[in-house]
Amino acid sequence: MRKRLIVSAAAGALALLLSVPASAAQAGPGAAGIGDPYYPNAGNGGYDVSHYDIRLKYQPATDELEGTTTVLATATQDLTRFNLDFVLSVKEVLVNGRAAKFTTSGEQELVITPARTVAKGSPLTVVVRYADKPGEVERGGYSAWLRTPDGGVAANEPEGAAWWFPANDHPTDKATFDVSVLVPEGTQVVSNGTQTTSSRPGWTRYNYRQTKPQATYLATLAIGKFDIRKDTTDGGLPVITAYSPDLGVNLGAAQASVERTGELTDWLSTVFGPYPFDTVGGYVPNVPTGYALETQGQVFYSPAQFARGANTSVVAHELAHQWYGDSVSVQRWSDIWLNEGFARYAQWLWSEHENEGTAQELADYVYNNYPADNAFWSVRPGDPGPDHQFAGAVYDRGAIAIQALRNTIGDAKFFAILKGWPTERKYGNATIPQFQAYAEKISGKPLGALFNTWLFTAGKPAVGSSGAASGSALAAAPGVAGLAPGASAAAPAQPKSWQKIQDTNTVHEHKG
Asked: Which neighbouring-strand residues pair with 240?
């Protein structure tokens, strides 16, 4: 560029000062990542999204997806260029009604250059038209679009949106959603939120509206043959469930579990406070995966979750995420304990509710089940690293940490925190230090040593049983630095719920 500059340096500087507004002179590209230390390329900088309008047409037989997504956002800086996370083939991009230049970079960056600089604070409307076969598109060695015998499914964590709509793909940039999908007559569509349908000869359009803020990885889409059922809870909350009819021997167990969604939602509302969304439900497509995912208001379950029979524990886990993970989302992926530790603990509370083992008994059993030299204790749930983000210790050691908190502050303060936290942080994001500060405020106790021991220190914490009426190794002194006398009690008996909880462990095998 400098070789083409033929005016003198002084004349060029004067021309720039006279012709370019001060704000535009400081304009530049938005960052290619939002700044998450685990996933540096996830999300983008320079703008904040408020709404996604996604209009799709899909041919299940050929996996052909055509789409137009409109992204409504606000520029957070003067923007000469910005990125969206997307992996499908793009045909056209408009920014604020004008054709924009676009290219791709890296594995998932759609780089957009608008015709005019977008001033900080200004509305940003981006229209992206695209067409591709998402099941054939791989990035980083995998595809987040799951092909099924009669269609396709998008459900993955920490990323999956890029296979069906362009997005600022990080939990800190939540937005509302309208999803409209045109499919051949006889094919059904499952997504998040309230549902309406319309028809024309040979085609059916499914419309879903999510009016509460939603992280992009919690948006889901399933297209194929489904038995879709609609009901309401006792309180009038709409419940939508759906099942592929070709689940074989797993169909009955899946229905026996997921059809209890309304019941479990009502029960969890007594633990975590009012349910935060407009609908609740779950769907089980015919996919070969083993994981489940807390997609917002409409949980994704793999049929493998029910291969050993009905299991309401996995339903309790994923529904607990509607409060811990969906309504209150992580600020950064290192805060994953705020999602998974509490969802696992909800399974323990459900075990208590069903008289199949108390949370204390489960905590004792986990603690005694792993010797000190087991790799389980090397994972720090409060900052496990991207390679161990969904390790079993984040779930089980993370749940022990919550039981240790309960033992330290007592049930009254503990359950006040379980309800108060998702109320105070509703539809927002949070960090573990913020949760600790909230727990200290409600309990009136310093909790730094407890959180540091159970969440941020590698190795098996040494705890004592002296003074514990139940004989629990955790009840007396959670978070102590040394082994207290009497800690070598006999190993506790296996709680009745243990195996069903273990059968849900594949819920965290969804990282691509």
From this structure: 230, 281
